[in-house]
Amino acid sequence: MQSEPLFLESVLHEKIWGGTKLKTDFGFKIPSEHTGEAWLISGHKNGVVTVKNGPFAGLSLAQVWQQQPQLFENNDATQPFPLLVKILDARADLSVQVHPNDAYAKVHAHDLGKTECWYILAAEPGAKLYYGHTAKTQAEFDEMLDQHAWQKLFRTVAVKAGDFVYVPAGTLHALGAGILALETQQSSDVTYRVYDFDRVDETTNTKRALHLADAKAVTTIPAPPAEIINTQDNHQNILPLAHEKYFDVFHWLITDSYAFKKQAPYTLVTIIAGAGKLIIGNNTYSLTKGVSFILPANITTWRIETTTKIEAIASNANQ
């Protein structure tokens, strides 16, 4: 079979905190002015993307994963596609939340756990993340949750475009208002809300549910500090951002031409700035901002060319 990348059609999700930047900044056809997420690369049942090109056009990523395991060097197609890549537009603060690890999620949610990371695409002046908490013991954490002592409990950290933050399962966290971020995560949709700023859902006219018992059970105590990598001064073609249990993540920066060699069974790529060409053998594919694709296992070399500059976030699964 001819070696060909899998270009993907994103799935858009409306959110109470979402806005319009997925349209204005990335050109997506958003369903409303409260669009919070574009699921770019996903085999998860809550937002399975489809292949747009080649012999698998029209099939979902989940179907290709199961039916063509050789494209991923996948020895167990009964397991779900392991990663999910999305862009989030935080017009308002997201709920402060925590995700479980694999063991807890398997028992309580019949899903994978959710370790994730953020690459900050844009941030308005003064934008911040909620990351971690101040409690030193489980008893102190539980008491602050029971008393709704949110200002005392939450830690915040300022961020800017180009920052990268790793968010392991068990970390209390949220994107703050004015942030546009690319998220690479385990393929999971399990979220336990701790605080939602007393917002009322316009559809149901009720506050969204909190999950304090689950949060008490899964939150890491004490919380580790946020470690931020900034890529603004990066001049490397390939800058490693994360080498963790579930994934590796890289920032690609090409200002002319760069030849790549396969380093993993398959590679996930999203273009976050600029435009250029992907060249594989005798075939050339157009790359523009917001395009996402997978380089499957049968592609061992490729080249990206640009007349200006092109940036991408790339990742591969480690499980």
TrEMBL record:
<keyword id="KW-0479">Metal-binding</keyword>
<keyword id="KW-0862">Zinc</keyword>
<dbReference type="Pfam" id="PF21621">
    <property type="entry name" value="MPI_cupin_dom"/>
</dbReference>
<feature type="domain" description="Phosphomannose isomerase type I catalytic">
    <location>
        <begin position="7"/>
        <end position="110"/>
    </location>
</feature>
<dbReference type="Pfam" id="PF20511">
    <property type="entry name" value="PMI_typeI_cat"/>
</dbReference>
<dbReference type="InterPro" id="IPR046457">
    <property type="entry name" value="PMI_typeI_cat"/>
</dbReference>
<comment type="similarity">
    <text>Belongs to the mannose-6-phosphate isomerase type 1 family.</text>
</comment>
<feature type="domain" description="Mannose-6-phosphate isomerase cupin">
    <location>
        <begin position="242"/>
        <end position="310"/>
    </location>
</feature>
<keyword id="KW-0413">Isomerase</keyword>
<dbReference type="InterPro" id="IPR051804">
    <property type="entry name" value="Carb_Metab_Reg_Kinase/Isom"/>
</dbReference>
<dbReference type="InterPro" id="IPR001250">
    <property type="entry name" value="Man6P_Isoase-1"/>
</dbReference>
<dbReference type="InterPro" id="IPR011051">
    <property type="entry name" value="RmlC_Cupin_sf"/>
</dbReference>
<dbReference type="InterPro" id="IPR014710">
    <property type="entry name" value="RmlC-like_jellyroll"/>
</dbReference>
<protein>
    <recommendedName>
        <fullName>Mannose-6-phosphate isomerase</fullName>
        <ecNumber>5.3.1.8</ecNumber>
    </recommendedName>
</protein>
<dbReference type="InterPro" id="IPR014628">
    <property type="entry name" value="Man6P_isomerase_Firm_short"/>
</dbReference>
<dbReference type="InterPro" id="IPR049071">
    <property type="entry name" value="MPI_cupin_dom"/>
</dbReference>
<dbReference type="GO" id="GO:0004476">
    <property type="term" value="F:mannose-6-phosphate isomerase activity"/>
</dbReference>
